[in-house]
Amino acid sequence: MDKLNYQLLLSVYILTFLIGLPANILAFFTFCRKVYRKPTPIDILLLNLTISDLIFLAVLPFKMKEATDNLNWSLPYYLCPISSFLFFSTIYTSTLFLTAISIERYLGVTFPIRYALGRRPRNAVIASCFLWLLGSLNLSIVYIVPYIPSNDNSSSSKLQPNPHVTICYDLFTKEQLNILLPVRLELFLVLFCIPLLICCFCYINFIRILSNLPHLGRRRRLRAIGLALGTLLVFTICFSPYNVSHVVGFVHGDNEWWRHFALISSTLNACLDPIIFYFSSAAVRSAIHACVNGLKEKMHIIKCRRCCSADKNTIKSINHI
User: Fold this and answer.
1) Which among 42, 53, 87 has a CA at the least distance from the CA of 281?
2) What is the pLDDT of residue 54?
3) CA distance 168 to 16
4) Which helix (H) or strand (E) holds 316?
5) Which range among 87-101, 215-229, 271-285 has the greatest average pLDDT?
6) Quick one: pLDDT band at residue 5, thresholds 50, 70, 90?
7) H or E segment at 284?
8) Which residues fall within 8 angstroms of residue 44, CB to CB, at 6 or more apart?
């Protein structure tokens, strides 16, 4: 890749970090307060989705450094598998929690009375633990691949765990690809296709049921439908390119060179999820409005102080005259 491509990756990482970090921190504290006061399944799932995004954002500085060095790894080796594991695993935990949220919403409108009687925060906690475990176990391949023995001693196959590695989780030997490519195909099928099908089923039926509810206000109905369509759109746009690269790589039997660009849309998901939080939770909307109003007040106070200071200087100048 040329220098322009590295700059594109770096720009996306920086943009996502600057927008996503404050938005997700605000959402995190808002959901923590809600869960502490009165836990509900949807808030617990949204909190876990926020935590997943925050972990992803915490790893982005390592990817920024990597992009700055033209995808060469100049940091200590032990940070390579840790950052790679957290980076890739949180992509899939995000898809899993978005799927769990779609199921919760579908059940809430399809079986409102039965689900209201049976919904327990404990079930959401158990489901969240299972989803974290599912994502982590599937992405443990990041730690396994460097230890796969290889008969190739060429310089292009040095993914072995050593402190002098210059490329982090990108150059693979034939033996490593024989293990890695089928696992990536499994990730595509199990952690992307199945969640996407579940989301489509849940949100399509969610929209159909809401459209037929006569007592629901038009504004509330449109907001709920817009949220469902927006979530599906974010899910598809953000996660499809990267997962499609798994299939293409499996067919070609190689590690596709454009996978880094496929990750751009997945990276942007960390700053698009807060939009979902905004429309999903009145508490998040209130927190954002409070922050915006607080900033407006501070700007107004600063402006008033400057005006007062200018007036005082003017009066002093007149007195001197």
Assistant:
1) 42
2) 95
3) 21
4) helix 282-320
5) 87-101
6) confident
7) helix 282-320
8) 35, 121, 124, 125, 128
Q: What is the mean pLDDT of the chain?
A: 83
Can you tell me the mean pLDDT for 217-241? 84
Q: Average pLDDT for residues 259-274, to the nearest whole number?
A: 88
Residue with tokens 């927008």: 19
Q: Which residues contact 183 (CB under 8 A, 6 or more apart)?
A: 138, 141
On whether the CB atoms of residues 316 and 69 are closer than 8 A, the answer is no
Res 154: pLDDT: 47
* Own/partner pairs, 208-211, CB within 8 angstroms, 24+ separation: 209/109, 209/110, 210/109
Q: How many CB atoms lie within 10 A of CB 107?
A: 18
Q: How far apart are CA 212 and CA 205, in angstroms?
A: 11
For CA atoms 241, 273, 127, 196, give the dihedral sign: negative
For the chain, the structural domain boundaries read 3-280, 285-321
Which residues contact residue 250 at a Cβ distance below 8 angstroms, ignoring those fewer than 6 apart? 181, 182, 184, 185
Whole-angstrom Cα distance, residue 316 to residue 174?
80
Cα–Cα distance measured from residue 302 to residue 233, given in angstroms and rounded to the nearest whole number: 41
Q: Where would I find the H helices in 111-120?
A: 112-118
How far apart are alpha carbons 104 and 115 in whole angstroms? 9
Q: What's the CA gap between 267 and 12, in Å, rounded?
A: 8
- Least confident range from 80-89, 98-107, 220-229, 253-262: namely 220-229
pLDDT digits (tens, 9 = 90+) for 158-205: 444 555 557 788 788 888 899 999 999 999 999 999 999 999 999 999
* The CATH fold of domain 3-280: Rhopdopsin 7-helix transmembrane proteins (1.20.1070)
